Amino acid sequence: MEWEKIRENLLSRLEKAKEAGLVDVEVLPYLDLINALPFFATSSSCYGRIILLDVPTGLKKDSAFLAKWHRKISFDEFWNSLQSVEGKYVWFKMDPLILHVSVKDIEHARRFVEVKTRAGIKRGGIFSIKPERIQIELEGTQKMEVPVKFHGKILITEEYGEILVEEANARMDRNAKQWERFAEEFKKEFSKELNLEP
After folding, report:
1. DSSP conformational letter for 47
2. Which helix (H) or strand (E) holds 93?
3. Total tally of structural domains belonging to the chain
4. Using one digit for the tens of pLDDT, what is the confidence trace for 83-142?
5. C-alpha dihedral sign at 28, 30, 36, 42
6. CATH code, domain with 175
7. Strand partners, 124
8. In CA terms, which of 28, 157, 165, 172 is 20 to 30 Å from 93?
9. Which residues span the domain enclosing 120?
10. What are phi and psi for residue 28, nearest 5 degrees?
C-alpha cells in the first residue's frame, strides 16, 4: 500500500476515534500538530493517565480499568474510587505519554527522533522499517505503580494515599512539560514545513 493511502486510513481512524470519544482530549493538540505535515500520521497515543487497574492474574491481557483520569486528581477522587471499585488485585498507576507515528521516509523519521531526543524523551525510536512506511514509538519515563487493594481489602492508609496522589500529580505535571517541550522542538525542527518561519 502506498504512503498516501496508509496516511489516509490512519487519519480516518483517528477522526472516528475522536467522534466516538476514544481519544483523550489533552493529547489532541499534539496529534494535530504532527498530522499537519504530510509525511507523518499518528496511529495511537496516550497523553498520560492516572488509573486504578485490576490485575487478577498478573497478566496484562487479563487486566481491567476500574477508574481512569488523563489529568491530575484530588485525593477524594482517588479515595472514593478506591473504596467503591471491585477487583481481585487493584493497582494505583500513573502511566506516561505514549505516541506511535507512521512516517513516509527515513529522513523524516530521523528528524522526528532528533526532536524526541531534544525534548528529553529518553525512551523510543524507530522500531519498524518497511518500504511503505517507518514506525516510531515514544514513551515517557514518568510512571509509578503500587498495589492498593486485595480481595476487597484496602492495603494503604489515607495518609499514604495522599502521598501517592501527590506524587502521581507531580509526575503528571512533569509529563505535561515533556509534551510541551516536544511541541516546541517539533515546531523548531519543522518550522519551514509548518510555515512558522518569520
Report:
1. -
2. strand 89-95
3. 1
4. 999 888 999 999 999 999 999 999 999 999 999 999 999 999 999 999 899 999 999 999
5. negative
6. 3.30.1960.10
7. 138
8. 28
9. 3-189
10. -60, -45
